[in-house]
Amino acid sequence: MAKRNITYLTDALLITCVVQKDLAEPILEAAKNAGAQGATISFAQGTGIRERMGLLGVTIDEQKEVIRIVVSQEQSELVFETMYLAGKLDDPGKGIMFMSSLDRVATYIPE
């Protein structure tokens, strides 16, 4: 069997952005322009204070898009700020973003 090595990246961060449905595209474009290499998008349902209705406080599920991007430590601030501004997340109800440290990341890395 051929010898196989795993190369671990240890200076990686995960940016997660949860926004209303159909708002992910400009955020992704901005992230790519800021140097992000790729992203994973998934769909989810969420609730928030703005969706409460009626006397019983019943909440309405709302469709969301979840964007996940792995970035290096050195590009993390630029990509994060660019995504935040492109998504207009300083407007109420647009979404939320957070960044998490990753202990280690493994993927194919060309020599």
Q: Can you summarize this structure?
A:
With 111 residues, this protein is α+β, with helices and mostly antiparallel strands. It is built from 2 helices and 8 strands, in the order ββαββββαββ.
Task: Describe, in plain words, how this protein is organized in 3D.
The chain is of the alpha+beta class and 111 residues long. It has one domain: Alpha-Beta Plaits (2-Layer Sandwich). 22% of the residues lie in helices and 38% in strands. The protein is built from 2 helices and 8 strands, in the order E-E-H-E-E-E-E-H-E-E. Strands 3-6-2-7 form a 4-stranded antiparallel beta sheet. A two-stranded antiparallel sheet has the order 1-8. A hairpin with a 4-residue loop joins strand 4 and strand 5. Helix 1 runs antiparallel to helix 2. The longest helix is centred in the last third of the chain and has 14 residues. The relative contact order is 0.33.
